[in-house]
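Notebook p. 47: complex prediction with pyridoxal-5'-phosphate.
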Amino acid sequence: GKIIFNGDLKSRSEVKVDIEDRGYQFGDGVYEVIRVYNGELFTEDMHLNRLIDSAKLIQMKVPFTIAEIKNRMKELIAENQLKDGIVYMQLTRGVSARTHSFPTAEVEPAFVAYTKEMPYTGKMKPGVNAVTTDDIRWLRCNIKSLNLLGNIMAKQQAVEAGCDEAIQHRDGTVTEGSSSNVSIVVDGQLKTHPATNLILNGITRQVMLKLCADHGIPYVEEAFTVEDMMAADEVLYTSTSVEVTPIINIDGQSIAAGEPGPITQRLQKLFSEEIEKQCGS
Ligand code: PLP
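Predicted complex, C-alpha cells below:
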C-alpha cells in the first residue's frame, strides 16, 4: 500500500524516519485516527479540526489546510482501495538537532498518513470486560499528543488481565479509557466526564451526545466515581475503533445483570444509522 509523507504519495518501504525527528525523539507531535466506512471518511471535519486544535495547543504550525489534508486522505483511500478501515495521520515538529526547545521557524513539521483495514459489521457488539487503573497522565489530556506512555501502561494492564480496556481514574473520579471515553447510565440518564483538560474530547463521544440530544435520551456531562460506575445500570465506552461498545464486567465484577443494557443498545443502533447516513455503507 501507499502512504503519504509530507504531501507526497509514496511506497511504505521508500520512507525512512530521521533519527532526529522530534516525534521519534520526544513524542513531540499530534495525531488523528479517522474511520473509513464504504470508502468514505466518517466525521472527518471534526477530526481534522481537533488535529488543528491539538497542534495549536502545543504551538505547532500545520503546514496544510483542512481541505488539503482531506483531499490527500481521499487520494490515499482511493489509491489503497480502502473500503472499511482507518486513516492514521501524525504531524511532528520536524527534524532538527536534538534539544528540548522548539527548532527554529524554518524547520517544517513532518506529516505521515497511512491506511489500515478494519472490518465493519454494523452488528451489535457483545459486552467486554475492563479493569480500573490510576490515571497517571499529565494534565493536558485534551491534546491528542503522540506522548502516550500513560495510556500504553494502562492498556497493557488491561491486556494482562485478559480485558479489553483500562478505565482510568484520578483519586476515584473516572476520567476515560486508555484509548476511549467512558459513560455510565443511571436511572435512564447517561453520564460522561465533561470535556475538560482531563480527557480527550472524543469525536465518537460528541456524536453520541448529539444522538442523545436528537433522540430524547437524557444525558449530563458530569464526572462520576468508580463507585458510581460499579453500581451503574450500564457502562459503555466509545472511540473511533470501538464505536459504541458495552462494558459488562469491571475488575471481575458484573455491571448490573452483566449484559448490554437498553440505552447502550439503542445508542449502538443510532450510531450505525449515523454511519449509514454519512457513508451509506
Ligand atoms: N480518549 C483517548 C485517550 C483516546 O486515545 C481516544 C481515541 O483514540 C478517545 C478518547 C476516543 O476518541 P475518538 O472518539 O475521537 O476516537
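Notes: The radius of gyration is 19 Å. Helices lie at 22-26, 44-57, 66-79, 149-160, 203-214, 226-230, 262-279.
Next step: compare against the earlier run before touching the bench.
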